[in-house]
Amino acid sequence: MDIKPIRSDDDLTNAFIRLENIFQADEGTPEAEEMEILVNLIEAYEDKYYPI
Questions:
Q1: What digits encode the pLDDT tens for the residues 2-31?
Q2: Considering the domain boundaries, does residue 14 fall inside one?
Q3: In this structure, is residue 19 part of a structural domain?
Q4: CA atoms within 13 A on the CB side of 11
Q5: Burial level of 17, CB count in 10 A (0-12/13-18/19+)?
């Protein structure tokens, strides 16, 4: 697991690509934990730069 902050739209795109690759991860696996972290990072970035 190599998680980095999302600081740009390119980082956001890369986070979405990774999320797509691990989306079906089984609960309790490292990939599931990574998915949870990525979702939180993506949400925080979108809330800051693309508020609704």
A1: 899 999 999 999 999 999 999 999 999 999
A2: yes
A3: yes
A4: 15
A5: exposed
